[in-house]
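Why run this: before we spend reagent on co-expression, it is cheaper to look at a predicted model of the complex and decide which construct boundaries make sense. The entries below are exactly what would go into the expression plan.
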Amino acid sequence: MTRLAIVDDSRLALGPLRQVVETELGWEVATATCPDEVPALLEIEDTFDIAMVDLSYVNSDLNGLDALLTIHDYTPTCRLVVYTQGDPPLAEVLRDAWDAFELATALSKSTDIPLVLRALRRVAVEGMAPVDPVLQPLLPAERSRWRSLEGYGLLVRHAGHAKLWRALIELDEEPSYRDLAAHTGLSLSAVSNYRSELLTDLSLHYLDRPRMRQMQRFAKRCRPLLDTHIRRKLGDAVA
Amino acid sequence: MGSDGGRLASELELESDLKVALLTGAAGWRDRDSLYTSAELAAVAVLVACVASVVTVLLVSAGLPGRDAAIAGAARWVVAAVGAATLVGAVAPSFAWPLGWRPRQSGPTRGFAAVRVGAGMLVVGCWTALLGPTSPAPIWTLGAVVGCEYTMTAWALGIRTSGRAWLWSFQRSTLHVGIWLVSLSVAFAYPHRAFDLLMVPLTFQVIALAAALTCSSLERLRTAIDYRTKRVARGAVAGAHHRLAHWLHDDVTTSLRFVRLGLQAGSITPEQVADELDQLDHRLRIRQLDETLGTGAIQLAQVLQPYVRLAQAHGVDVVAVPRFDEASTTLDGDTGRMVQRALSVVVPNAIAAGAEQLGFRVAANGPGALAIEVEDDAGGFDLAAVPAGRGLDGLRRDLGTGAVTCTRTKTGSRLRVVIEHHEVEP
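The model came back. Tokens follow.
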């Protein structure tokens, strides 16, 4: 029997969709209402064949990328499906997820449930399904290898970059050079030079010479994808 | 305790690092494509005026006899030219930045800071050599240049300046102590020139005081501009909230009340309820789009999205949508509204005509124009036979007759709308 994990905080996914998947597809379904609950869900339920993940959560500081990464790390064979409204504010996160993970498909919540079931069935049988037309224009035809999980390592080439990214993630508002220097313990010139080094690489992430505010938004949004590399580099630096 | 000690050491290190950073000038800390704020532009204007004053004083004094000055004759012109060129060179990045000349590639260095300090000392030296005992009085103009540069650099680094703190910092600095020690030592050695020698520390005091006053004035100006900007922004946000509240009442709550009353009276069927909710959903999506259009820039994908959803909600199979590279084109607000207008006519028409499949395509139509195509399988129609007053007729009148064309296909029609397009920076 196919086992489906739904990670979503919407009534639509937790109620009608779950019910229909169980009754019409005969699948076993387990749910988590936010990414924070995913580790516990995986501990209890062990493995899933397909995971259907929303991208934004009002009741959590974590986002869909956290949930996708946790599931991917725990069960690399699990087929990942993004289930989202696909509204403009989430378009960038959707693109990040698309490039970083081998998504089986992306489905819009405005799509009728029979079409969602058809896509899920196809994922179970063929391993993937066409992306929902509502979301298709938001996604590039080919995934960029620079934006894969490993590709994010290019943005964290040494401990200095790691400290800079961590400060951008942890500081609340658009930080100044002085805030960044105080937070990282780096000199002002070092902060400026590390930032300059990263500007070129950020063009691979659709950011053309971003301002500090844009760079911080990117850092906060892609925190789960950067964090592994940050921890690795800071661990290396300590060692 | 150890942690506190470490933090203190780190802060002290930062403070020393900060002093070096403040000497490098604002341009070294700015993003290459960043624009100056109103306060920064005002600071640049003051800087330009003060630099012009210093250069004028240097050149005019070079032509005067220079009684009691250290140098005379043609050498005065050379010293004036060196002083003027050094000053202009040292502050050139601050002038050049607003004009688009931005040579910076990497962060500024201690060496760069040392060059600028050296340049400052050279200008003071030239000034003193030319003006002799009268040099301290007009040198406040050079102090104002220092104040402008310091303030702009501090702002670029994210620091609010304080004139008083600047003055106090200068008084405690090793530079200031060194100036006094050297002047007093030389004055003891040459007592007959003691008065002239004591003019040197006095000159630096005037520079420091003028710089501090300039810092305070520019900081006050920035506070006033920030306050005014925030007040205007608060007003705009309040206005938007009022409009939104009004719209929520007029459109959303009224529609829901209509459905509820209809259900209570038994006058509408569940299908009609579903239809009403679908229409409300579409209106909410359009409203969402309007809000984004109001920001002045929008991606084509965002304009298309509600109409793809609308087609899907009516059971239409969407067989083609623009690719990511086509749909990620950023449009200005007016173009976005026109694309929305075209889609709001074409898509409902196709649905009403009974289309079962729809395809959306986008293509560049020469420079400065965008072609939107919607292909359906609803049997086709004759564009020339569209009665006056209908949506398509209005669209043709607004865009020009040639801008809207219709091609018959095997199963329906392909409507092409060409819209003027000015791509904007995302």
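The longest strand of chain A covers residues 79-84. The radius of gyration of chain A is 19 Å. Bring this page to Monday's planning discussion.
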